[in-house]
Amino acid sequence: GGEGVDNSMHSQANIKQAIDPDLRGVVFGTIARQNRSEDFDKLIRLHNSSTQSDERLSLSLAISSFKQPEIVDKALVMIKSDAVRLQDVSYWIAYSLMNRHAQGKAWEWIKANWEWLDDNIGSDLSFYRMPMYVARAYSDEDFINEYKAFFKPRLNPAMERSYNQGIEMLEWQSAWKKREYDSVKMFFTAEGSRKP
Description:
The chain has about 200 residues and is mainly alpha-helical. The protein has helices spanning about 5-10, 15-20, 25-35, 35-50, 55-65, 70-80, 90-100, 105-110, 115-120, 125-130, 130-135, 140-150, 155-195.
């Protein structure tokens, strides 16, 4: 299946001809789902050599999609490197939060690097949306207190709306999960037991 994709990645010069621009994001994501460290390294090289903003974002999504903890750590470390442009930092964070295998590490990274984020992208609209990015990633009632404890002391007027929306999102996501979890689980259990 994926051998043709892997072979086309050996030459960075041929990548643009080998993969239709409209399909690159899907191809990069498919490669990332194979979870091979050598593919991670190839995707990094492609990202770092690309000059096209949309291609770099597609690659950052793929790079942030691996599930191995050591690769997740490498992707998070890249955020503060020269390889990631400051205007792309929030994408890397949001993509990492969307990855259930990276979510916890991404949240810890945000907390540990908050001062750096504030210093480097603190005047950017994406920085003010950071509470929403975090809230979208969680649906546990227990997380609401952790969310409030971290963001409330760091609030500024530009971030307040995003913070409040994040609380609302966490509350309705956790209420939905509490209300519907058993019926959803029962549905998939019943569907899984059906014979084709």
